[in-house]
Amino acid sequence: MSIKINLGAWSSVFAVPSKIVDEGLKFSDGVKLKVLLYVLRNSGNELTDSDISAATGVNVTDIPEALDYWVSMGILQKSENEYKPVQTVTDKEGSYNSVSEKTSSNNSDNEIKQEVNSKNENKATSVEEISNEVESAKQRFTVTRPQKPDYVFTSQRLAVDEELKILVGEAQTALGKVLSNSDISTLLMLKDTCGLPLDVIIMLIQYCISIDKGNMRAIEKIGIGWADEGIDTLEAADDKIRRVKQMNKNFSVVSSAFGLKNAGSPTKKQLEYSEKWVAEWKFSPEMLREAYERCVDSKGAMKFSYIDGILKRWNSNGIKNKKELERFENSNNKNNTTRKTSYNIDELDKIDTLDDF
């Protein structure tokens, strides 16, 4: 008796590691998946970026980033210009574990441990401390910036994804314009890759409009920041907006006290200083101005780090107004043969060597 099995389409199959679905799918997009599937399908063949582009429709310039993404996910490893599957080791029971973990491209646990060990050389350190440092180091290595899906993938999703259609409609109404395919791909990235819910993205768009940044570039940048902070509910988004508005309000108090006109967008460091001086230490505009003038008199320019040193000394001595400041300085003059001020010039000069950002 002869037996013949016709597998049809299944007669030509190729393996796809389960890790791609388990760990890589959430932050991947159509571009990355297309490139990986084509590479796996043509394993053993030497492929160029042009070959992959011609077969998948992916732009040639996007291919290296897509491959590097799968390196960062521990699916592939790169050796010079050659990509290979990540090597695995088999234990005594026959199970296997991947040597590479989910870090940034080209950074394995071994590299991280070497970094930590080099820092702890000639220093007695417990196993727990080393473990904590390894985890801390791993957090510094993150996957690449989210990549927007391509034109074809975006068009296909828009045709079948009702939630995306609603999002596009709401965005067009709020922004007062018809969205381009690139704009829609940004929204799709925020929704799928970054994991922001529909209502949070709509609140994000409305917030950007309220601060005169109603453009897709600002929406994308702020949206990615929200995703990194884990802002995935309306309550968290509302709290974030409230905190940002308060920080900007604190900076307005500072910039007004310093006489800054058209200060523009403050840096993160300036916002942190302003929040500390106004909200935490509760200095009045009058005292902020006094610290500013002393800084300019001493350094010839405004230095946020230098001003912070002055205010820190005043705060630690309970000085909150000019009368208290005058009493404090008069007391120092009477009690010391060498004049002491409410701030130490030498210490502030050291602080001034740091960047103001």
Which H/E pattern describes the elements? HHHHEEEEHHHHHHHHHHHHH
* Total domain count: 3
Strand order of the biggest β-sheet: 1-2
Q: Give the averaged pLDDT, no decimals.
A: 78
Global outline: elongated
Number of helices: 17
Number of strands: 4
How does the SSE layout of this entry go?
Layout: H1 18-24, H2 30-41, H3 49-56, H4 63-72, E1 76-79, E2 82-85, E3 88-90, E4 96-98, H5 109-119, H6 127-140, H7 151-160, H8 162-175, H9 181-193, H10 198-210, H11 216-228, H12 234-257, H13 268-280, H14 285-299, H15 304-316, H16 322-335, H17 345-351
Antiparallel strand pairs: 1-2, 3-4
Walk me through the structure.
- The protein is mostly helical.
- The chain folds into 3 domains: 11-88 and 101-109, Orthogonal Bundle (Arc Repressor Mutant, subunit A); 151-232, Arc Repressor Mutant, subunit A (Orthogonal Bundle); 244-351, no CATH class.
- The protein is built from 17 helices and 4 strands.
- The strands form 2 sheets. Strands 1-2 form a two-stranded antiparallel ribbon. It has a two-stranded antiparallel sheet with strand order 3-4.
- α12 (234-257) crosses α14 and α14 packs across α15 (304-316).
- The protein is elongated.
- 24% of the residues are buried.
- The model is unreliable at 89-108, 119-125 and 137-143 (pLDDT under 50).
Record keyword descriptors for this entry.
357 residues; mainly alpha; Arc Repressor Mutant, subunit A; two-stranded antiparallel ribbon; 17 helices; 4 strands; 4% strand; elongated
